[in-house]
Amino acid sequence: MSDHSVAHGTFVVERTYNHPVEKVWAAWADGKLKSQWFGDKDHPASVFEFKPGGRESSSGDIPNGPTFNFDVLYQDIVPNSRIVYSYDMHMDGKKISVTLAAIEFWPEAKQTRMKLTEYGLFLDGLDNVAQRKEGTVGLMDQLGAFLDKQK
To answer: Which contiguous run of DSSP H or E holds residue 9?
Structure first.
């Protein structure tokens, strides 16, 4: 019997931000802005190519814990409307997941409704959908706080 396994999981995180779509979009599309709210602020993305076929790569440490690497391939980008990407996540050099994600944006008056959907393949029991959703919810909260601090 193999020690290798794949667990499948899907989750959705929806938010309404009190900011116009262009501002919320920029927080994803501009590498300097994204580095201020996404992941480890002390380790901004080493690669940030926000275009179809482009890549993004970053890493970060959990205090007294493992190092994570996040490697993205942008599949589709429609400005102010959607971002579709796939990504691998590594923990201390071991691949823990492969994910397909979509972020959709809708203007609603002076607000933005955003929906992030992820379908993940979690490998060898090293990650799972509940942990990934918890981390993503935290990131979307960080995005909201970042947007609220901007003028």
So the answer is: strand 6-17
Give the contacts of 143 (CB within 8 A, at least 6 positions apart): 15, 17, 24, 27, 37, 38
124/118 Cα distance (integer angstroms): 19
Per-domain boundaries in the chain:
6-149
CA of residue 32 relative to chain centroid, distance: 15
Q: Which H or E run includes 8?
A: strand 6-17
5: alpha, beta or left? (left if phi > 0; alpha if psi -120 to 50): beta
Of the CATH numbers 3.40.50.300, 2.20.25.100, 3.30.530.20, 3.30.1370.10, which one belongs to the domain with range 6-149? 3.30.530.20
87-103: b (≥16 Cβ within 10 Å) or e: bbbbbeeeebbebebbb
Q: Considering only the C-alpha atoms of the chain, give the largest distance between any 2 of them, rounded to a whole number of Å.
A: 57
The pLDDT tens digits of the residues spanning 88-144 come to 999 999 999 999 999 999 999 999 999 999 999 999 999 999 999 999 999 999 999
